[in-house]
Design a protein that fits this description.
Protein-Tyrosine Phosphatase, Chain A; 3 domains; 17 strands; alpha/beta; six-stranded parallel beta sheet; UDP-N-acetylmuramoyl-L-alanine:D-glutamate ligase
Length: about 425
């Protein structure tokens, strides 16, 4: 019996373990952290052996194949040992795709992935298609393949997930943009990150579709260099407009969301969705939690939760959409960020910056000479209170951190939930 070891027991790892068990493999799950109660229960219910708080090498190095959580870097010592002995290491998406014939619509990019993925899923659902939502949102692809039977999957893919995908093929691949992100995982070499993103086109043929933002300078440069096998669908403000509605009718506001809507529209056209369904979906889609999410108005000040802005480019888009004087809350785990990208927007739109993190030194050094009101905090409650004191009637308080959440929070969702709770308690 072939032995599958799953490293990491979060959403993707637990799903992979359940699918492997169902397919008759000898399955073992190992997580060096603490496995949460719902995933423990899921593993136990399906008779999957597991451990947490450690990695027992004698139970892992004998694997025929390893399914690795995207959160574990390729430089981890255990991964190095597995590689050295030639053990195949794959992602949960790669593993799950072996057991379904469903059409795969895959979305990646530095920004806009969740919004675009959710919008495409919404359009397909409105059209009555049998479709699942997977990847970084929804239930894991592997768990859905094990327990459900969809005709289509709409999958949000991070660069980490793409790193360990080899035979997987997207029927429709979408690349929204590429800006420096996660450089700490890619030897601080931007090209390594770019290469990871372009893995979404891997194995595609002329029967498959590649939808990409033609005006992104990084994508444009790579497209001139690469010879891709897919049918190409460029989009952008200088390309023919695919939208079946006027920009003012879109439910999603902001220049970046016009682009996201273009990508989603082309994908829906490729699938064969009727234009009237696409049109109505673009007008009624409600957006994504923690992405420019309105929270409340307190004393005439609007509070916006953009906790999903885990990189500088995401914050740029958030600031670009601000129409009132802004108090910006930012900070967290720096991933090799270059904050100069938002310099001009910070100067134009913000009168106060509130730093919220355990290590704000880099932020103070970068923004200290801008002549703005700068407030240092090391927790979210104090940051919200400082914003309340600094804001004037008619202002907007924007949480758009530019950084990962893992210095103070479990996830960007946790950060956003805590922000909304603190605002509602004002």
């Amino acid at each position: 019996m072939k032995r599958i070891v799953v490293l990491g027991a979060g959403e993707s790892g637990s799903g992979a373990a359940i699918l492997a068990k169902e397919k008759g493999f000898d399955v073992f799950v190992s997580d060096c952290g603490t496995i949460s109660d719902p995933y423990r229960a899921l593993l136990d219910q399906n008779g999957v052996q597991w451990e947490d708080g450690k990695h027992s090498e004698e139970l892992i190095l004998n694997a025929d194949e390893v399914v690795k959580s995207p959160g574990i870097p390729l430089t981890a010592p255990l991964i190095k040992k597995l590689q050295a002995q030639g053990t195949p290491i794959i992602s949960e998406i790669e593993f799950a795709a072996r057991y379904t014939k469903a059409k795969m619509i895959c979305i990646t990019g530095s920004n806009g992935k969740t919004t675009t993925t959710s919008l495409i899923f919404y359009i397909l659902k409105q059209a009555g298609l049998n479709v699942g939502l997977a990847g970084n949102i929804g239930n894991s692809l592997a768990l859905q393949v094990a327990h459900e039977d969809h005709d289509y999957y709409v999958i949000e893919l991070s660069s980490f997930q793409l790193d360990n995908m080899y035979d997987f093929k997207a029927d429709i691949a979408i690349l929204l943009n590429i800006t420096p992100d996660h450089l700490d995982r890619y030897d601080y070499k931007f090209q390594n990150y770019i290469d990871a993103k372009f893995r979404i086109t891997r194995n595609q043929t002329k029967e498959d579709s590649f939808i990409y933002w033609a005006e992104d300078p990084v994508i444009d440069r790579e497209m001139k260099r690469l010879q891709l096998g897919a049918t190409l669908y460029p989009y952008g403000f200088t390309c023919p407009n695919p939208l079946p509605v006027g920009e003012e009718e879109l439910a999603l506001k902001g220049r970046h969301n016009v682009l996201n809507s273009m990508a989603a529209t082309i994908a829906a056209n490729v699938v064969g969705i009727k234009k009237e369904i696409i049109r109505e979906s673009l007008k009624t889609f409600q957006g994504v939690e923690h992405r420019l999410q309105y929270v409340a108005t307190v004393r005439g000040v609007r509070y916006i939760n953009d906790s999903k802005a885990t990189n500088v480019n995401s914050c740029w888009y958030a600031l670009e959409s601000m129409t009132t004087p802004t108090v910006l809350i930012l900070g967290g785990k720096d991933k090799g960020n270059d904050y100069s990208e938002i310099d001009e927007l910070v100067k134009q739109k913000c009168h106060t910056l509130i730093f919220m993190g355990l290590h704000n030194e880099k932020l103070r050094e970068h923004f200290g000479g801008f002549g703005l009101n700068i407030i240092d905090t090391d927790n979210l409650h104090d940051a919200v209170q400082a914003a309340y004191n600094a804001a004037h009637e008619g202002d907007t308080v924007l949480l758009s951190p530019c950084c990962a959440s893992f210095d103070l929070f479990k996830s960007y969702e946790d950060r956003g939930e805590q922000f909304m709770k603190a605002v509602r308690e004002l």
